[in-house]
């Protein structure tokens, strides 16, 4: 429902209703702004505010303005209950925290990422044009970052990997080494989904599918194992949701393309293969310390949860309790290096698993609330028919799988909020007339 002003309104007055009629523009801007370099060097700082964060907060402000003006925002009872449970769990964890004052900033961040921005995105999406606009912004951001990452790999100007500056990190730098792979993955899935929505044989379909194919290269040379796994599984689910027969055909094509990409074209060749094989190697002379450290961090999170089982130790408490609960072999940090920041040792301040992070910091109450939200979004998106389904399911699956290897933090965290908002918009519709008709 669009808002209008009298004809005698000022020029500025005309612009505000236009933005209110299409707030998905601000959602798209939030996605695109993650590409702006922040030059953040203090990775241990408690608060990071990026241009994308500011845009997301402006989107939340527009949501608040809609509420004050009495406009329906499409938030149904199920969505209210699910997001309300997240707020309650985080609030209880903060109140019972080992350090409530330190947990307060964590509570605010959790509210932004898992409640306020997703609800604002849900309210901003009103028709299929809005969906295409947001998915298009994911593709545009991925193309920018993928192009930068490809140049970094080919010219040896990226982050250090096995002693060579070949790791694609886009505009994010070595201190946020996984950010580019996430952005590229989202764009690849969005391009694939939008391409399947286009008419067979059309130039738009071909262009989108070629874009998805191009993004496979910078994703490969990001050397992010979690992103590889998440993208492969998400793309499979996306294709199954779109067309089961098509999924089977494309599985063979994808395998052939991977062989050509890695073997024939030398996209990191042995490096990619070695990186994949290191996932399960945690002992012996050839273990990957980044893998063993991650598993040790999970063990640490479980130990913290055992001491605070119901409401957890409190947001931002993992980093305080890590050393007292960690195995002796856990490294103090991860080595990073690039041309901009030089060599730095990045501290391991989280378990690198969102589920273990919630369990340790918010306990059984928190993991139940988050698990219920994620399951409701996934089941709702899978069950609902329509052209938007594959895109939403693919992006949501990526986030849920990636949470097994990563947690919130870094420049691109706000993109998780946008995806959760997309999923809530599709999976938890409150008013069918404000949603696109099933195709």
UniProtKB/TrEMBL annotation:
Coiled coil spans: none
Residue ranges of domain O-antigen ligase-related in the record: 211-370
Main location class: membrane
Top-level lineage group: Bacteria
Cross-referenced InterPro entries: O-antigen_ligase-rel_domated, WaaL-like
Topology term for the membrane: Multi-pass membrane protein
Keyword Transmembrane: yes
Listed transmembrane segments: 80-98, 104-125, 132-152, 172-196, 208-226, 246-267, 354-381, 387-405, 412-428
Listed GO CC annotations: membrane
Subcellular location: Membrane
A GO molecular-function annotation: ligase activity
UniProt entry keywords in alphabetical sequence: Ligase, Membrane, Transmembrane, Transmembrane helix
Protein name from the UniProt record: O-antigen ligase
Organism (species): Kitasatospora viridis
């Amino acid at each position: 429902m669009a808002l209008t002003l009298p004809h005698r309104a000022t020029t500025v007055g005309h612009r505000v209703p236009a933005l209110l009629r299409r707030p998905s523009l601000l959602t798209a801007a939030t996605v695109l702004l993650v590409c702006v370099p922040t030059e953040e060097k203090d990775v241990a700082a408690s608060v990071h505010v990026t241009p994308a964060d500011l845009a997301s907060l402006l989107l939340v402000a527009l949501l608040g303005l809609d509420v004050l003006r009495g406009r329906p925002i499409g938030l149904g009872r199920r969505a209210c209950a699910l997001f309300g449970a997240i707020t309650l769990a985080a609030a209880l964890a903060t109140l019972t925290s080992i350090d409530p004052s330190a947990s307060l900033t964590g509570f605010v961040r959790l509210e932004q990422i898992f409640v306020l921005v997703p609800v604002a995105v849900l309210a901003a999406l009103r028709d299929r044009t809005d969906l295409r606009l947001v998915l298009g912004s994911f593709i545009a951001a991925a193309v920018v970052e993928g192009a930068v990452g490809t140049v970094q790999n080919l010219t040896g100007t990226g982050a250090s990997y096995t002693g060579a500056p070949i790791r694609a990190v886009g505009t994010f730098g070595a201190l946020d080494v996984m950010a580019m792979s996430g952005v590229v993955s989202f764009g690849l899935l969005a391009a694939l989904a939008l391409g399947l929505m286009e008419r067979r044989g059309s130039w738009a379909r071909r262009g989108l599918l070629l874009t998805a194919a191009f993004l496979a290269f910078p994703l490969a040379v990001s050397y992010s194992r979690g992103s590889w796994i998440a993208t492969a599984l998400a793309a499979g689910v996306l294709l199954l949701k779109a067309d089961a027969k098509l999924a089977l055909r494309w599985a063979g094509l994808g395998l052939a393309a991977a062989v050509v990409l890695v073997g024939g074209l030398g996209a990191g060749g042995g490096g990619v293969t070695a990186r994949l094989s290191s996932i399960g190697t945690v002992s012996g002379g050839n273990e990957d310390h980044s893998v063993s450290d991650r598993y040790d961090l999970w063990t640490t999170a479980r130990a913290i949860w055992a001491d605070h089982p119901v409401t957890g130790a409190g947001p931002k408490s993992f980093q305080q309790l890590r050393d007292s609960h960690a195995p002796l072999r856990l490294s103090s940090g991860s080595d990073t290096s690039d041309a901009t920041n030089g060599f730095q040792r990045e501290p391991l301040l989280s378990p690198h698993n969102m589920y273990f992070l919630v369990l340790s910091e918010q306990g059984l109450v928190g993991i139940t609330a988050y698990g219920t939200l994620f399951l409701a979004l996934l089941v709702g998106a899978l069950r609902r028919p329509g052209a938007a389904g594959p895109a939403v399911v693919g992006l949501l699956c990526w986030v849920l799988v990636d949470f097994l290897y990563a947690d919130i933090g870094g420049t691109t965290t706000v993109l998780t909020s946008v995806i959760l908002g997309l999923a809530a918009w599709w999976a938890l519709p409150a008013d069918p007339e404000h949603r696109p008709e099933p195709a």
